[in-house]
Amino acid sequence: MDRALFSRTDLMLLAVVLLLCAYGALMIYSCTQAQLAMADEPPTRTVSLQLIWILVGLVVMLLVMMVDYNRLPTLSPFIYGLVMALLLLVLAIGPIAYGSARRLSLGPLSVQPGELAKIAVIIVLGTYLASRMRGEQQTFETVVRSLAYILVPSALIFLQPDLGTPVVLGFIWFFVLFLAGAKLTHLAAFGFALMMLFAAAWGADIIRPYHKERLTAFMHPENEQYGAGWQIRQSLIAIGSGHFLGKGLYQGTQSRLSFIPHQEKDFIFTVVGEEWGFVGSTVMLGLLAMLMWRSLAISWAAKDILGRLLAAGVAAMFLIHIVANIGMALGLAPVKGMTLPFVSYGGSSMVANFAAVGILQSIHMRKRKIAF
Questions:
Q1: Which end of the chain is more exposed for a tag (fewer CB within 10 A), N or C?
Q2: Per-residue model confidence as pLDDT tens digits over 19-35
């Protein structure tokens, strides 16, 4: 990479990402060490895997940074097609875990193509809309055709079944279309149609009872103390018990005693609330706000419409994950598998997030020509 180009790296964005990774690693170790020790496994096993994925993610980010984002339109059909093929493979040979087949096993490792689908959709959607810009508003035909880019992966992911990722893809589509100049009336019409389809799927029992239970439990968690409402109740207890300064690092009783299943993934924010209290939670929210600020700032400062839409898609992906994950922990949103960017445990999500940051960095570094 050219040194002059490399010097344009957004160091603030990189620092925020690394701080979130460090924050997450501490929280993952805190909520997994006791369980691993009781199972006669190394207490650092889970956090060590997370650190490995962070290193892999950094390499992916660097590789993506080195690619001029203006080359992504040429690569987009290959990227999109490869991810769609992986999603089909998941349905064909993916192992079933907790009632869903979402991963492909690669020896000791596993890959979740649904996470990669988010990046593929951002690239192909940004590419398509940038090529169709005519004046200040997108035509209705463009809006309809763009919808196909999310319907295909959403349908494949829905069959796994996974309801969270299609919501993320839909939000990315809406956010990017809005910034690309689509009429609100068009977007509202499609939003209403999708809600009607979901209602029909609910009534026809296409949505599985397990998912219905998880989607409705957050409204009345007290009615399902040992079912889908258990995680929400324990999450609220954990966050509430942290008070202002928290119980202290590695001192959270809810976390150490495994009251919240899979806490290192979907409910990592509860560890922050319990052990570091209001102050620690505010610091994390501040870092996440800075992540959003840099993403949107890069979108705004991009030199062309392609860069603007790609960065907007990344910002949308981060935003829906942050809102949904913290909303779940606070009992304000249904419990779905949405990780907190760079904080929650997960290899595929970590790599996808770093790839997204690589796209942001590529746009930021090339926002103006280098003067010689």
A1: C
A2: 999 999 999 999 999 88
